[in-house]
Amino acid sequence: MSDTHTTGPFIAAIDQGTTSSRCIVFDRDGRIVSVDQKEHEQIFPKPGWVEHDATEIWANVQQVVAGAIEKAGITSADVKAIGITNQRETTLLWDKHTGEPVHNAIVWQDTRTDALCRELGRNVGQDRFRRETGLPLASYFAGPKIRWLLDNVEGLRERAEAGDILFGTMDSWVIWNLTGGVNGGKHVTDVTNASRTMLMNLRTLQWEPKILSSMGIPAEVLPEIRSSAEVYGETTSGVLAGVPVASALGDQQAALFGQTCFASGEAKSTYGTGTFMLMNTGSEPVNSYNGLLTTVGYRIGNETPVYALEGSIAVTGSLVQWMRDQMGLINSAAEIETLASTVEDNGGAYFVPAFSGLFAPYWRSDARGVIAGLTRYVTKAHIARAVLEATAWQTREITDAMTKDSGVELTALKVDGGMTSNNLLMQTISDFLDAPVVRPMVAETTCLGAAYAAGLAVGFWSGTDELRANWRRAAEWTPRMDAATRDREYKSWLKAVERTMGWIEDEE
Amino acid sequence: MARTIQSLERAAAMLRLLAGGERRLGLSDIASSLDLAKGTAHGILRTLQQEGFVEQDATSGRYQLGAELLRLGNSYLDVHELRARALVWTDDLARSTGESAYLGVLHQQGVLIVHHVFRPDDSRQVLEVGAMQPLHSTALGKVLSAYDPVAHSEAVESAREAFTAQTLTDLEDFEAVLDLTRARGWAADVEETWEGVASVAAPIHDRRRMPVGAVGITGAVERVRRDGELRPEIVAAVRDCARAVSRDLGAQRF
């Protein structure tokens, strides 16, 4: 959507995501000038295993950067900086001398480290490293994935201990390659990505030697931890040769940044296949006693780091897809709103999509999905409504947990992601939270966040105040539900949640 | 009985022939079973193929029913699908024009607002999704009336209430505006519905060139006009947006 009335200079953002790599060029107002995108292969070697070919990803990244620059009709001279955002936790080890990955990247969704995580918990359990890292021992995080690779790729541990192997999440891989690869590439990561490895101490923002030795990971493989917004190095080749690489942020943190949630208590929620909510908690990491994760929100150069609480909902957009593909009740995802709008309420039906257990704030792996409250009165339209309400109630549960942990009451929720086009869902979330729900004008908040951070690092934008001034409200939904109805409905939802628990009796 | 059109009867017979079970037929089979010259049969088949009612297998050259037939019975575009496709483009429209953007479809006797993007100036605004606007006086309504025959007949039969001194209520004047709209591809409303307010809109087409909705901006007349004329960059932005959404829906470039 290149526009004649947009003039340079520009910032380019690379989003190395789970299913595709994208490059978006932004102008000074934060408007999109051009986009290019390429999907990469999802490799499933065994049930529960998910891998990516990092060589393919690097080739795609180069291609989309060239594509976006060409579509914008600009040259490297017009681009002041490159920002990086990435799928988090996806783990890669590569040979420092050849630049060749030693194995496919192990993707965040991959569950091969389940047993290893239980073993690492020893007698303490999944909270063994929580105080230092803010994370429970779960298969998502990078540390146990590194350990798995060291244990399972022949000869790798020896090579790693000899200093021949580098570890990185996808930010590190992209930055190392952009800044020269085997010819002096910078081996760095940012605090947000490092906070998802389970190896970094949240308070010191350094690798934690105790955990490294518990997990059996040699410090030689680890990148240097840097801030999220500073110049790591210059691009050495390709269409953007000479342009500084100036930011890195995990995708959800980038969205928090793109939504300009710069003040403590501000939160964003990204509604896609799953949903991720992050709340800025200011300069202190807040321990969670309600099943949330503590993570680094961002750090701009030498400024004080900003922390966040994170809660995720496993099944949101994917529940709508399930209604379409498995149940055949709708033809397209957007039709869920059409169907749900044909009725006034849920007709007494509640749908708890605990397809693979309950996540935050319950963390019950023995739970499975239920549709509760069925009577002969209930139609498919009521079920469609219950599907949307499930996402809204789970949002409410996470905001409640955030309020309990942080002591900060949510004043408004900033939303982004594909499901924000669903008006009924957005209204329902506002009704259930009893708070306004606000959608910004640039839907691509993840790339925008990376661009903002990179632009700050090179002085393209003066500070967070200028970015805030760039933020535009595209839509706002305000609560319309009376308190009595909300309370009654919430109670019914919680009853339905209870009924999912204990369904799986033998965990092994 | 009134005169019938022979080629349409033959086309219908071909479709029935191809619908008889899961099968593909060659040109000579079709021609001989309908007692047609090969050239005649081929002409009809090629027309049906162009419309998507018949498809030709690339390797065997045989014919089968086309996917378009399935879509015929289920052809309306879900308005929420339309909104999802329009989201990015309408955000950009609001951003580039500095005015609020609206997406409207025909609903009963008026325009139903299915999507609304706030004016990007941080002022307090209320989401107008679900509101109805009149067909005969608004830019969205004129676009729908100009391109969609159902909307046209609704607007013609309605009372065409005068909301301001500017509202066109006379049928002849109204039809002239619709002709102009079709000729230039966009419509305007300068204080014809609300005093002090002007809007510009353009049509959205789906992949069969069917008009499925209208997209436009609305703002204070002194911002939308300059020196008594609608600002050309606003008109261009609205038309760009309509084309972009149409392309996303699969419409050919036009």
TrEMBL record, chain A:
The Carbohydrate kinase FGGY N-terminal domain, residue ranges: 11-258
Enzyme Commission numbers on file: 2.7.1.30
EC category name: transferase
Protein's pathway: Polyol metabolism; glycerol degradation via glycerol kinase pathway; sn-glycerol 3-phosphate from glycerol: step 1/1
Organism ancestry: Bacteria, Bacillati, Actinomycetota, Actinomycetes, Kitasatosporales
UniProt activity-regulation remark: Inhibited by fructose 1,6-bisphosphate (FBP).
Keywords attached to this entry: ATP-binding, Glycerol metabolism, Kinase, Nucleotide-binding, Transferase
InterPro entries: ATPase_NBD, Carb_kinase_FGGY, Carb_kinase_FGGY_CS, FGGY_C, FGGY_N, Glycerol_kin
Catalytic activity, as annotated: glycerol + ATP = sn-glycerol 3-phosphate + ADP + H(+)
Protein name in UniProt: Glycerol kinase
Known role: Key enzyme in the regulation of glycerol uptake and metabolism. Catalyzes the phosphorylation of glycerol to yield sn-glycerol 3-phosphate.
Binding site for ATP: 18-20, 273, 317, 321, 418
Residues reported to bind sn-glycerol 3-phosphate: 18, 88-89, 140, 251
Encoding gene per record: glpK
CDD domains listed in its UniProt record: ASKHA_NBD_FGGY_GK (cd07769)
Sequence similarity: Belongs to the FGGY kinase family.
Taxonomic source organism: Streptomyces ochraceiscleroticus
UniProtKB/TrEMBL annotation, chain B:
Signal peptide region: none
InterPro entries in the cross-refs: GAF-like_dom_sf, HTH_MetabolicPath_Reg, Tscrpt_reg_IclR_C, Tscrpt_reg_IclR_N, WH-like_DNA-bd_sf, WH_DNA-bd_sf
Keyword DNA-binding part of the UniProt annotation: yes
SMART domains linked: HTH_ICLR
PROSITE patterns in the cross-refs: HTH_ICLR, ICLR_ED
UniProt entry tagged with the keyword Transcription: yes
Keywords: DNA-binding, Transcription, Transcription regulation
Domain IclR-ED residues, every copy: 68-251
Xref: Pfam families: HTH_IclR, IclR_C
Domain HTH iclR-type: 5-67
Entries under PANTHER family matching the protein: HELIX-TURN-HELIX TRANSCRIPTIONAL REGULATOR, ICLR FAMILY, HTH-TYPE TRANSCRIPTIONAL REPRESSOR ALLR
Name of the molecule in the record: IclR family transcriptional regulator
Lineage, top ranks: Bacteria, Bacillati, Actinomycetota, Actinomycetes, Kitasatosporales
